[in-house]
Design brief:
Blueprint: E1 3-9, H1 17-30, E2 35-41, H2 53-56, E3 60-61, E4 67-68, H3 71-78, E5 88-90, H4 91-104, H5 114-133, E6 137-142, H6 152-165, E7 170-177, E8 180-181, E9 186-187, H7 190-201, E10 208-213, H8 219-229, E11 236-240, H9 248-254, H10 257-264, H11 276-287, E12 291-298, H12 308-320, E13 324-331, H13 340-346, E14 353-355, H14 364-376, E15 381-384, H15 386-398, E16 406-407, E17 417-421, E18 436-444, H16 449-454, E19 458-465, E20 467-469, H17 474-480, E21 482-488, E22 493-499, E23 505-508, H18 523-538
Parallel strand pairs: 1-6, 1-7, 2-5, 2-6, 7-10, 10-11, 12-13, 12-14, 14-15, 15-23, 16-17
Antiparallel strand pairs: 3-4, 8-9, 17-20, 18-19, 18-21, 21-22, 22-23
Helix pairs in contact: 1-3, 1-9, 4-5, 5-6, 11-12, 12-18, 14-15
The structure holds glutamine (GLN).
Glutamine binds at residues 357-359, 385-386, 409, 464-467.
Length: 541
Amino acid sequence: MAKYIFITGGVVSSLGKGIASASIGKILEWKGYKVALVKCDPYINVDPGTMNPYQHGEVYVTDDGAETDLDLGHYFRYTNSPLAKYSNVTTGKVYQNVITKERRGDFLGGTVQVIPHITNEIKDLIRQGEKKHNADIVLVEIGGTAGDIESLPFLEAIRQMKNELGPGNAINVHLTLAPYVKAAGELKTKPTQHSVGKLRGIGIQPEILMVRTEKPLDAGAHAKIALFCNVQQDCVFEARDVEDIYEIPLLFKKAGLGKIVLKKLDLKVRKRKDSKRWAKAVRIRKTAKRKIKVGVIGKYITLQDAYKSIDEAIKHGAIANNCGVDIVKIESDNLEKYNPEKLRSVFKGVSGILVPGGFGVRGIEGKLSAAKYAREEKIPYLGICLGMQIAVIEFARNVCGMENANSTEFNARTKYPVISLLSEQEYVKWFGGTMRLGKYKCVLKPDSLAKKIYGKTEVMERHRHRYEFNGVYKKTFIRQGMDFSGLHPKGNLVEIVEIKDHPWFIAVQFHPEFKSKPDKGHPLFTGFVKAVLKLQDKQGG
Ligand code: GLN
């Protein structure tokens, strides 16, 4: 039977519960335990796949094609937790299941209620992962902030679970904030007291507190929090702002968080695992002398979380190349009309261009300008999903002479539909969960850049799109110098394109960013950064 750690947050949102949960998971792995992480999201959407990035941030996709919360990306980057459909439980999914059961007649005669029906469903969904993967410890992060109406059924469910599991088998970790009030010159503990009070009011007494602060948590504040929140002194941890999120597990490890968690769960260190590789990655980020500058051309750039996995994967590529990275976010709307002069000033000092995924017509022309600029100026280009479709459209228009070539997503009546709907998508009417999702095999062409980058002939990568390269145009493109270096064997779907007469121009229909870790960067990002460094060397930068 697995042990459980429930992680909640209080005072304000955006405290970094996902990273805190992932960090605890990492520390437990270092102590020899197999962990699984689950995220509970109190919104009524069945999954975040239908949400605008401005509402939600990035949608993280798992191997089995689940469209999930971006915290699962943190779980992947930090731990070896299995991640699948069952790793993200939403209110929408819970109600959908309960209502289906009700319609089927499963509750015949009964009145269906939040307690016990909704809470039972939440508990069943949370426990699915444990059964499938034999995890020793399951970490369950509850989205939202203590006191929200929406998260109440989840809190009630974990309260019940802890009681059912019995003492020593489940604990609660609560992440709070101690704001610094300048006028008083001190950290304030009251919001933390209130937040824990809220939890205790519904029957949850946290064993461990992690207190976010911008200043050191002095002995007085520390003692006060322990006393008023009814938590042992050595179980109150300061979680100070840090520059690098990858340092967090190391800092908590040093502070003894792992030891306390194991003690509370009646466990001993099983088999110490090395944290050296992780520490080395962190060290490189701190001490690297060289720095590269790459541009990410997107349309959701004002939202920090919209391209989370992309940003992280670029950082991982830099770690693998022993350098630092400066990521410049460029608003595609600003590049609409192709103007080399303007582009030169926008891309000043930028030695690599990345066009990430996206949906809808807004910003497309700007991305096309960026791709053309990268192709003509021989700047390393990495296109991801929409970024591949953009590379194809640009090549069609400006190299193959197909005027106004487009994707049918943006112009259904284009004369040259070089990107068109996947055949399996033609009759799809509903938006939710209906794209080409999850992992697919991609066979790499010998002698291609892709093959060189991956160092193997077959890879599995994750997808999330409806449109694809239109095979009708393949021959023309090949004649003009575009190589199709990665294909999905079934139906020969184009997964990777590259331009032969270019030092490093590669674009992929899938999302490699979902499979990159700080101490194990994804080959495409490692290769991209390497190419950028090479160009920078050439430019004498
Ligand atoms: N909008 C494009 C499609 O649906 C690309 C999707 C993406 O970039 N994830 O095919």
